[in-house]
Amino acid sequence: MSSKEYLIEILKENNVFKEGTFTLASGKESNYYIDMKKAITEPEILSTIAELISTEISNDNIDKIAGPALGAVPIATAVSLKSNIPLLMIRKEKKGYGTSKLIEGELNKGDSVIVVEDVTTTGGSLLKAIKAIEDNGGIVKKAFTVVDREDGATNLFKSENIDFEPLISVNEFF
């Protein structure tokens, strides 16, 4: 059985913490970066994340697992495989060719969905993905992030009445 402590241990072993000067997706400057793109290319990390989330949702009657592109798609895929629940992929914007879909996968009106993310700072990117699901008839039951940088996401989701669950917070990581 995987645990939060084990996840922290293998993230540290894989050197996902970088020090320096970084601009985050939120536009904020930071003196550290959590390189989850590197982390989620490692099968043991991905498997551990999938097990933790799948265990958490096992009794929740979830219809779909969703992940915004790019970083959350491998996580959502791993959770989908572990839980045997179909996958949705949320694009950052509609593509200008083919089917021009914002959401890839079969989202039915009234589907219960969980959304996963790799790292949250303010929560803006994750909220955008949640709104896309809701705008297309899905019901978001819970949002998960692997690492919450504790920079506003929790308060944002609380104000939006969205159940938000970080697997680990940045303070637990350090």
Question: What's a concise summary of this model?
Answer:
With 174 residues, the protein is of the alpha/beta class. It is built from seven helices and eight strands, in the order αββααβαβββαβαβα.
- Morphology: globular
How many domains would you count in the coordinates? 1
Query: Main sheet?
Result: 6 strands, mixed
Question: Architecture, CATH level 2?
Answer: 3-Layer(aba) Sandwich
Structural class: alpha/beta
Helical content stands at: 25-40%
Proportion of strand residues: 25-35%
- In whole angstroms, how far apart are the ends? 23 Å
CATH C-level class: Alpha Beta
Spatial extent as radius of gyration? 15 Å
Oligomer: single chain
- Average predicted confidence as pLDDT: 92
Order of helices and strands: HEEHHEHEEEHEHEH
Q: Which stretches are low in confidence, meaning pLDDT under 50 for 5 or more residues running? A: none
Report the CATH topology name.
Rossmann fold
Number of strands: 8
Within the largest sheet, what's the order of strands?
5-4-3-6-7-8
Helix tally equals 7
